Amino acid sequence: MAQLSTIEWTNSTWNPVTGCDKVSPGCKFCYAERMARRLKAMGSENYRNGFELTLHPQVLEMPLRWKKPQVIFVNSMSDLFHKDVPLAFVQRAFDVMARASWHQFQILTKRADRLAAVHASLPWPPNVWMGVSVENADYVHRIHDLRRVPAAVRFLSVEPLLAPIPNLPLTGIDWVIVGGESGPGCRPMDADWVRQIRDRCISQDVPFFFKQWGGVNKKRNGRELDGRTWSQMPTPKARRASRRVLVKA
Question: pTM, whole model, 2 decimals?
């Protein structure tokens, strides 16, 4: 069975790599790090090393055994483009995704520089979406690296949103997710920061998904923005148009 997920924009998770390290402010209160330590304490074999980067080749072909089509978040507990994940292992993961064509895979990275460096060595089947995390204006350069990738969908995870991001670059981007930080020590998010991004998405016809306000009790705070939920997803037409923009660039 796939690991069912409570993440609002996906169905399940697949973790052929676990563990990571911090590269930017958005990593400060990493949910995956807390969860990995908890799972290690519970005796989970895949988390025997806690949050130390660990490859799990025995997990690679699991999606091929999941016959029910689903949306799968790849490496919710790590970063597939971490410098210590060998390119050959990344290629094996992409090969599985290409073969498991009945699923939709979503990959998210903060290592956009490595993504840009190796993307030409990877297949990009239409069922693989690629995204980068952007937590404040200092990291919009990750978006420029993402634009070089010929993924069917290129998306942004603006979570945790830690500061306003005026003029978020959206050319060649198919989808934007925004969310506040949750859990112990979480940093607050201003509603106007969210509105600024939402309005920019509307003006540029980019689907907008508001994931959560966050906070210590994220369920209580909910995910409504200005009296409604925003759960827009990218459309096939938008994906094709965006891909043509990339190829001509």
Answer: 0.92
Quick check: helix, strand or coil at residue 202?
A: helix
DSSP-assigned letter for residue 150: -
The arithmetic mean of pLDDT across residues 202-222, rounded, is 91
| Domains along the chain with CATH numbers | 3-248 (3.20.20)
Quote the tokens at residue 235: 């459309």
Q: How far apart are CA 132 and CA 141, in angstroms?
A: 10
Q: CA 4 to CA 18: how far, in whole Å?
A: 17
- Cα radius of gyration rounded to whole Å, the chain: 17
CA nearest to 140, candidates 149, 128, 150, 132: 132
Three-class secondary structure of residue 244 per DSSP: helix
pLDDT tens, position by position, 36-83:
999 999 999 999 999 999 999 999 999 999 999 999 999 999 999 999
